[in-house]
């Protein structure tokens, strides 16, 4: 990027300057023996062109919208349209969540993001014994299409895009969403949204798995195939580093483990005969925005570059859209404190800004009360307003990749790419991500434990927790989901089951079993079944019976 | 020291898959000289109590972040009593609102450790209570 004679001059002045620096450090000893990011990259006092001497602008950076997409996936990015402001919401009954959705849309939110309760995420109906105490707690309970219809009542599914955080039973919930949109009068091809559908990270760290890896990978490939043919605008997977980071991974591990999982999905789809240029453009990603502001900006940029190379060089994709890493971001839940919760507003704002400077396609900002409970209406509104301030008031969206070219950002982008590639190579030698689950778990746990030790011994400052503490009154106005949600949901379900033609239900479940036992694509039979109000639990029970259940290995 | 090592069962009741905290606590207790068994995810109260009796533990530490603590924590204490094992110390942690804590203590949960608790506090608390 720089001519040799320029570099020589800079090297000479930097040598002289080093003496000055040493003298200054004697007068003003440094606060730390060593400055470093959590990913293990040492931070120097200052960065100069010398740190980028071996880099080539065209090859390593390029222009926005061009390979390797370091500077973003769109030529004009937020000058064209701001990111989608998408707050994750869902609790209690479908009626309550429908109200929260409509409140968010009225406040200027531009897309929906649906949280499901844990029984739904694990494919149990609300009347299952394991669902006790969990119905409607961390998201909305969906047992059948009837609940889905209530959830999206008066929300036109052909006009909004919806992201659904659903993994193991993603195909079934997608089938319900399609049926619901069709009932509203929209065509399949008009709907737009995302299912998370990322099961490997469920094994690694999020925990809502159902089936073993092999049938899970088949279901994911079934979804890729079905969507490319039927709902071309749908994002078929959201390969998620968010939870990997929340579980304790560093930024470099977040990139590496997420993209290693991505590689496993692409490989499985290619092995099942799908064309990478066809399904590749519909893959999307989901990252965390954590506290180390500049490291996070570099992380997003590095991730884009690594993925572009993976798709083009490793999988031979020719379609440029298959090279691009498009991603959603959520600010870091683990960075929120129960102490002095209002301070979380500032943490979230900086994290959100890093995502925007990193070129995110959509964003969720956490609410300040989330270390205490599910967010209340007021805290959700402030979280959304935070995004609006970044988008409309502070000028950072008037150009693309404003931090590109910063010697430090570029140098850190390079360093994170190298660290991530080392992990990916290691995972390759273990046989790929679906075979390296325990390895990743161990690495994540070690980082999580180190992080906590650093807080406990005050190497890392957490305002209100290990510095600047104060006496506080207990917080008020927290949202509470009461237990009657579960009882009402079970009543509704019992009534629904009694009102169906059981012979029809049985034959639809039989069709699912036969498809599961053959090589057929399962999604069309799911769609047929949910239209007749066959429940999520009934469908997943068949799958559990045919394929067995995943058994977690204990690693710590 | 010839003192018997404290035995702890770290458990994840319910369906919640967030086990960062449980595993970090498990490691801290182990590094603090205790013998620790971690159950893994999705344990019913019955499974937790059975494991506690089999492993002959002095302490059960449970972590829930899904909000199901009000149902599941007291259930574990109730089952321990039924099995005549009420001497087992039961503690909990996770996303648990302050206002829920009195009812949990009333139900027999000895202590609740919320977000931001230093590891040392948990280790010291258990050592004091058990010895």
Question: Nutshell version of this structure?
Answer:
The complex is a heterodimer of chains A (556) and B (131). Chain A is an alpha/beta fold.
Detailed description of the structure:
- The complex is a heterodimer of chains A (556) and B (131).
- Chain A is an alpha/beta fold and 556 residues long.
- Chain A contains 22 helices and nine strands.
- Among the domains of chain A are: 4-52, no CATH class; 62-326 and 406-456, TIM Barrel, CATH 3.20.20.
- Chain A is 50% helix and 6% strand.
- The longest helix of chain A is centred in the first third of the chain and has 24 residues, at 4-27.
- The mean pLDDT of chain A is 96.
- Chain B has a single domain, classed as Rossmann fold (3-Layer(aba) Sandwich), CATH 3.40.50.
- Chain B has five helices and five strands.
- The longest helix of chain B is centred in the middle third of the chain and has 14 residues, at 69-82.
- At the A-B interface, helix 5, helix 8 and helix 18 of A face helix 1 and helix 3 of B.
* Main sheet: strands, sense, barrel of chain A: 5 strands, parallel
Strand order of the largest sheet of chain B: 2-1-3-4-5
- What is the overall number of helices of chain B? 5
Provide the residue-averaged pLDDT of chain B.
94
| Amount of helix of chain B | 40-55%
Pairing-aware structural class of the strands and helices of chain A? alpha/beta
Topology:
The complex is a heterodimer of chains A (556) and B (131).
Chain A lengths: L3 H24 L29 H5 L15 H4 L3 E2 L2 E2 L4 H13 L5 E3 L3 H4 L23 H7 L9 E4 L5 H14 L8 E4 L4 H7 L6 H18 L6 E4 L1 H5 L4 H21 L4 H4 L3 E7 L3 H22 L5 H4 L3 E5 L11 H15 L4 E3 L12 H16 L14 H23 L7 H20 L27 H15 L3 H16 L5 H9 L4 H12 L9
Helix pairs in contact in A: 4-6, 7-21, 8-18, 11-13, 11-17, 13-15, 13-17, 15-16, 20-21, 20-22
Chain B lengths: L6 E5 L8 H12 L3 E4 L6 H11 L3 E6 L4 H14 L6 E6 L6 H6 L4 E3 L5 H12 L1
Parallel strand pairs in B: 1-2, 1-3, 3-4, 4-5
Helix pairs in contact in B: 1-5, 2-3
């Amino acid at each position: 990027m720089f001519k040799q004679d320029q570099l020589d001059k800079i090297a000479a002045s930097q040598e002289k300057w080093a003496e000055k620096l040493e003298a200054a450090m004697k007068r003003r000893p440094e606060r730390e023996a060593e400055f470093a990011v959590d990913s293990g990259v040492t931070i120097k006092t200052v960065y100069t062109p010398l740190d980028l001497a071996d880099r080539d602008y065209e090859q390593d950076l390029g222009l926005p919208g061009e390979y390797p997409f370091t500077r973003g996936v769109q030529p004009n990015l937020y000058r064209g349209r701001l990111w989608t402001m998408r707050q994750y919401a869902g609790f209690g009954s479908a009626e309550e969540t429908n109200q929260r959705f409509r409140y968010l849309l009225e406040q200027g939110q531009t897309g929906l993001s649906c949280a499901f309760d844990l029984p739904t995420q694990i494919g149990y109906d609300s009347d299952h014994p394991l669902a006790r105490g969990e119905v409607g707690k961390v998201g909305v309970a969906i047992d059948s299409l009837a609940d889905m219809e209530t959830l999206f009542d008066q929300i036109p599914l052909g006009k909004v895009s919806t992201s659904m955080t659903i993994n193991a039973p993603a195909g079934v919930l997608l089938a319900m969403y399609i049926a619901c949109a069709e009932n509203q009068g929209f065509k399949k091809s008009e709907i737009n949204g995302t299912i998370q559908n990322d099961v490997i990270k469920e094994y690694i760290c999020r925990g809502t798995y159902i089936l073993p890896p092999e049938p899970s990978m088949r279901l994911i490939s079934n979804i890729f195939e079905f969507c490319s043919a039927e709902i071309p605008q749908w994002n078929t997977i959201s390969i998620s580093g968010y939870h990997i980071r929340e579980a304790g991974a560093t930024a470099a591990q977040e990139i590496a483990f997420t993209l290693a999982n991505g590689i496993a999905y692409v490989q499985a789809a290619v092995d099942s005969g799908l064309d990478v240029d066809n399904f590749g453009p519909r893959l999307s990603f989901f990252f965390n925005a954590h506290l180390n502001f500049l490291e996070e900006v570099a992380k997003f940029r590095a991730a884009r570059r690594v993925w572009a190379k993976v798709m083009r060089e490793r999988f031979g994709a020719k379609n440029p859209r298959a090279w691009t890493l498009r991603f959603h971001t959520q600010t870091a839940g683990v960075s929120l404190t129960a102490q002095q919760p209002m301070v979380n507003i500032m943490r979230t704002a900086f994290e959100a800004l890093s995502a925007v400077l990193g070129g995110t396609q959509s964003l969720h900002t956490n609410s300040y009360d989330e270390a205490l409970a599910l967010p209340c209406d007021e805290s959700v509104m402030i979280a959304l307003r935070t995004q609006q301030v970044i988008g409309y008031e502070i000028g950072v969206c008037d150009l693309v990749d404003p931090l590109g070219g910063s010697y430090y950002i570029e140098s850190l982008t390079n360093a994170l790419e190298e660290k991530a590639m080392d992990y990916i190579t290691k995972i390759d030698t273990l046989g790929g991500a679906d075979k390296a689950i325990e390895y990743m778990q161990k690495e994540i746990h070690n980082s999580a434990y180190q992080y906590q030790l650093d807080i406990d011994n005050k190497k890392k400052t957490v305002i209100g927790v290990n510095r600047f503490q104060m006496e506080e009154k207990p917080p008020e106005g927290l949202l509470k989901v009461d237990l009657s949600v579960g009882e009402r949901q079970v009543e509704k379900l019992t009534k629904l089951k009694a009102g169906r033609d059981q012979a029809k239900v049985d034959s639809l479940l039989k069709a699912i079993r036969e498809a599961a036992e053959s090589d057929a694509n399962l999604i069309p039979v799911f769609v047929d079944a949910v239209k007749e109000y066959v429940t999520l639990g009934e469908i997943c029970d068949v799958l559990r019976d045919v394929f067995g259940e995943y058994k977690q290995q204990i690693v710590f | 020291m010839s003192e018997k090592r404290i035995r702890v069962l770290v458990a994840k009741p319910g369906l919640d898959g967030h086990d960062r905290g449980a595993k970090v606590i498990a490691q801290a207790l182990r590094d603090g000289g205790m013998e620790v068994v971690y159950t893994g995810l999705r344990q019913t109260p019955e499974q937790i109590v059975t494991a506690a009796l089999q492993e002959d533990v002095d302490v059960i530490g449970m972590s829930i972040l899904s909000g199901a603590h009000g149902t599941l924590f007291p259930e574990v204490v109730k089952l321990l009593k039924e099995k005549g094992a009420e001497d087992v110390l039961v503690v909990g942690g996770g996303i648990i609102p302050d206002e829920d804590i009195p009812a949990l203590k009333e139900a027999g949960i000895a202590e609740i450790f919320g977000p931001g608790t230093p590891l040392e506090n948990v280790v010291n608390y258990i050592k004091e209570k058990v010895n």
